[in-house]
Amino acid sequence: MKGTPAIIGGALVVLLLPILAVAAIAGAIIPAATSATTCADPAAAMPGTWRPPLVGSYTVTSQFGMRYHPVLHITKLHTGIDLVARADKTVVAAAAGTVKVSGYNGAYGNQVVIDNGGGIQTRYAHMASASPVSVGQKVAAGTRLGTQGATGYVTGAHLHFEVIKKGSPIDPKPFMASQGAPLNGGATSAASTRATAALATTASTKTRTISATRTDGQKVTLNNEQLTNAATIARIGRKVGAGDRGVVIALMAALQESVLRNLNYGDRDSLGLFQQRAGWGTTHQRRTPEYAARVFFGGPSGPNEGSPAGLLDKRGWKSMGLGQAAQAVQVSAFPTAYDKWEPVARAIIDAKGLGGATAAGDCVAGGSTYGQLQVATWNICLEFCGGGKLRPWRDRIPLIASAIKKAHPDVISLQETGHQKTQGAAIIKALAPTYKLAVYKRSKMVLFDPTKLSTTSASGKKLGSVKFVVEGKGGVAQVLRDLRTGKTVVVSSLHPIDGTQDARRLRYIKQAHHLVVGLQQKNPGSAIIHAGDLNSYIPGTGTKKKVAHFFTDRGYRTTEQIAKARTGQEYRSYNGGKAPRRGPRIDHVIVDPRATTVDTWRQILSTNRSDPESDHNMIAVTLTLSGTGMATQYAT
Asked: Where is the M23ase beta-sheet core domain (predicted)?
């Protein structure tokens, strides 16, 4: 095989958010730390009767979660579930409540939002015409809201149904199931697992095709045979407990290896859907789709008992990137080839109802997935931490590299990496081949995971970077292309002057931002991600506020402030061999929230707090690039 933050002391509080030792102040600025888990919360059973939002039977055509938007052509969170009525297209209230919204929205078209109480709201979108219900009206479960339609951002008629808990969308499927109203297709439909089986048995008798576009722009059309094989893979994956994530990985692998065709030939002795070699089974077994899928997934019920190891046998597969997990099983000579197939795999699942099952633990899996980007920043103090403050830099480099690899960001911004030919070269070597250097200047560097990101365009042209020195301090920025989605980002590594000279610090930041915006203008649609030790916080002393003003005025926010979930907020940084210090932070990842959603924020403390890797903590964030890069233009 191959909510708006409180304003304390003026608008400055909005940006470089302090985590103050004084709990009362900290609580006024930042919500309490929450779990890093981003999976849906089905919630406890709500009062009253719940029912599906369509009167008749229907098909689920798109699940909740990250997907490539068919109209906007960007990767973003699909905040609900799409249902297509088979006959009766009447849309009704899923539960009793009060109408909060009834009208037209550009994206949602004709929509209704109902407050169902208990912090739960439901949305019904893309209806054919304006709803007969009005804002403030009390409705009962089953009250007619309208008719399924195709208004707003759609490619076809359907009902987009959302469940919103305390202001954030959650997966409607487990929620509705917990209320006794599973979204299983209505009275005449079976659950999604039976829909999968139906696809497998009927695809050969009906003319069906699916067309989708890979991340490299190539359009792919799949026929009956290929969709039947996809249904087999999905059925086996769900049976062995791989969940939707595992099914997507398997489909990506089979798409790359055979384009879902059961081939009787291949490289050397490779055969079948996954182009498995002789060690995976006999010729007949490898050309039997059910067997090929079973050995790909492996696990406790796998035919090969873990040798060769299938997906479920691979330790940490849920925290790997999807393509990375496929490669872990396939061990291809082209390790990054699988990622381009993710939109096609998801299109198969969305169009044919193959989703709907989640493996235990899927919701807590780490690692970035399609449409997400994990970014970390760390001042590793290889340059100015001598004199017994920390252990010698040579002793700390293996520990630093281990911590970075454990966190496994897609891109990391490092400061105080030392001279390029000594300390800098040592940390680059320690991180290779997991990470590759993108750009370096005066101890600032940006490194990236080459299985997920690239410094070249799809046509092979080098993307831009900048290096600069301002006020005696270096800085860098690099344009990176996500190999999975094709989107580009501009990531910086910044470290302005410390101390009370705020004017000099501001000059550094202004020039850095000017250069970064210049890169963005050459790569339209790129999101800007500023990262580094900014030596700035709020309120702190009165000498470190100008940088905050600069970013706030341009619409930027710290990721800590706007993250949906945060962990590790307790401390600021280390102080040599002493305990971690509390107080406001100076290490930040800063984004434009109009272009970027912050899913999680983590401050990662050393495992040995009496002998840490650095006197700073690593900050790691998971981002979703939710729109075009909207960073405000540079202004003095």
From this structure: 77-172
